[in-house]
Specification:
The chain is an alpha/beta fold. The protein has one domain (2-132, 140-261): P-loop containing nucleotide triphosphate hydrolases (Rossmann fold), CATH 3.40.50. Helices cover 43% and strands 15% of the residues. The chain has twelve helices and eight strands. It has helices spanning 13-26, 43-46, 55-64, 70-76, 103-116, 145-153, 167-182, 197-200, 204-216, 228-237, 241-244, 249-261; strands at residues 2-5, 31-36, 78-79, 86-89, 119-124, 156-162, 188-195, 222-225. The chain has an eight-stranded mixed β-sheet, with helices on both faces. Helix 1 packs across helix 12 and helix 3 crosses helix 5. The longest helix has 16 residues, at 167-182.
């Protein structure tokens, strides 16, 4: 189970999550893509799936009733085009429905997802704050609980940073909360997205690496090039970027990232 997280400001986490799921599915793994963003889930429109799909909220409701099994997951998971190895649990179309994604429900739903797929990619919201827990009603739902539960349930986290003078400091500040929450229990791969010379000078990649190393102690970040043409193709085709623009530099880098995160084995009892 791989959670894809990034700070506020649209660093590209949904595009990356979708591309990783598509690349892993294309390589033979049975992938399940989950939209657990309680602030602005966008996987459904990105892949051309109707907003009426049951999605992750339905999975959480079933998990809360101890009724989520492989058959129910197969029923409520959507198919994104002609991709037999890729199933999708879409997010909430209306952000006001966030109370449906409670911590225990999310944990139960993700446990069921883990049991039926080779790899689960979870797109989570940006906010990791726990200040809401200070309110007097300790039994009330928490909007950030879905992201926190997904991160804590994952085997690995892909942390997405927009490689700009604004995006890097924003990421490093938010990353502190992520590291404090996870500690050393879950490995975190930093991905610097949209690396381009216009915002970083001639050696943009070198400057991004230097900034992450100097101010964040990050020595092994994965750098993704700014490739708006490939992103536009993916959006127009309602498909993962690795499929819509397979020869683009960005797609090549994303396939390499997916390969580094790929599970070793494959489950026998996976989604059909």
């Amino acid at each position: 189970m791989i959670a894809v997280w990034g700070p506020h400001g649209a660093p590209g986490r949904t595009t990356i999550a979708t591309a990783l799921a598509g690349a892993l599915a294309a390589s033979g793994h049975r992938a399940l893509l989950v939209d657990a963003d309680t602030y602005g889930g966008a996987i459904a429109p990105l892949l051309g799936i109707t907003d009426e799909a049951p999605g992750f909220a339905a999975a959480c409701r079933l998990a809360g009733a101890d009724a989520l099994d492989a058959a129910e997951l197969d029923r409520i998971a959507s198919t994104a085009g002609d991709r037999p190895n890729l199933r999708v649990l879409t997010g909430i179309a209306n952000p006001a429905r966030w109370p449906e994604l409670g911590r225990d429900r999310v944990r139960g739903a993700l446990a069921a997802c883990r049991a039926v797929a080779d790899v689960v990619i979870v797109d989570v919201g940006f906010n990791l704050e726990t200040d809401e827990e200070l309110i007097s009603d300790v039994a009330a739902p928490r909007r950030n609980a879905a992201a926190l539960a997904a991160l804590e349930s994952s085997d690995a986290v892909v942390a997405v940073c927009e490689a700009t003078p604004i995006g890097i400091p924003r990421f490093l500040r938010a990353r502190r909360a992520l590291v404090d929450r996870l500690g050393d229990a879950v490995p975190v791969t930093t991905v610097a997205n949209r690396v381009r010379a216009a915002s970083g000078g001639l050696d943009a990649a070198g400057q991004v690496r230097q900034a992450l190393r100097r101010f964040g102690g990050i020595d092994d970040a994965v750098l993704l090039p700014h490739d708006p043409r490939a992103c536009d193709r993916a959006l127009g085709a309602a498909a993962p970027l690795t499929e819509a623009a397979p020869r683009s530099p960005l797609a090549r880098q994303l396939r390499a990232l997916a390969a580094s995160l790929a599970p070793v084995g494959r489950s026998e009892d996976s989604l059909p």
